[in-house]
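Hello,

Our lab assistant flagged a job as stuck in the queue for most of the afternoon. It eventually completed. Since we weren't sure the result was trustworthy after the delay, we are filing this so someone can double-check. Below is the sequence as submitted and the structure that was eventually returned. Let us know if re-running is recommended.
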Amino acid sequence: MIKVFNDKNFFIFTLLIMVFTFAFTTGKILATPAGCDYGYFFGVRLRPNVISNHILSIFCLITPVIIIKLRKLKITPGSLTAYTLFIFLSTYFGSTLDGYFVIPQWDKVMHAYGGILLAALGFMLIKYVHKKMDIPTAFSPLIAAVVAFCFATTASVIWEIYEFLVDLLIGTNMQRHSTICGEPLVGQAALWDTMVDLIANAIGALSVSVVGYVSLKRDGQLIDKLYIEKISE
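-- returned structure --
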């Protein structure tokens, strides 16, 4: 029986949505005068930089898949679906379709979701390196959980540094109110936004790290389901 829903089909379906709406958006932008700085999907005018957001969404979606194919890796079933859903909901729905300015706290939800995925990836990478180096002894559950947590939170910090550098270099402000035009946040409000982003990511990462630690202390069956492996030649 052929499975209609699987990692590959969901990835292709999502990619097609992004590509077709990218073509539609490009045509609409060429025909629509500039209006509000933000929004085009929820009944307001288009903005030129929606094109760059769209390209970034597609790039972020396909890059890991290309790396997996080139490196001939095998990953946990469902991982690609979870990642595809994250890219769709964050960079595509959040940035391109302005979900961040329409749904209150959507940004925080995505940071927490990202923390969950990154911590899970942390466990997968620990196991991969452990096996790659042919270490004969089992790794410490506590060390594995701490490394997975630190991996996820470090990635979140790097993202916030990226936002800061982009704002600094091109004069933008990514810290904005959750409104359709996203008025810029300044002073303590902007700092609060950044810190809550980091806290949301840390909460998501901590939840996975704790679950991973408990699993490894018991029988490790749950963590055994998370893996990155080289495909045998």
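-- support follow-up --
The delay was a queue issue, not a problem with the job. The result is valid. The two ends are 27 Å apart (CA to CA). Helices lie at 7-31, 50-71, 79-96, 99-102, 106-132, 141-170, 187-218, 221-224.
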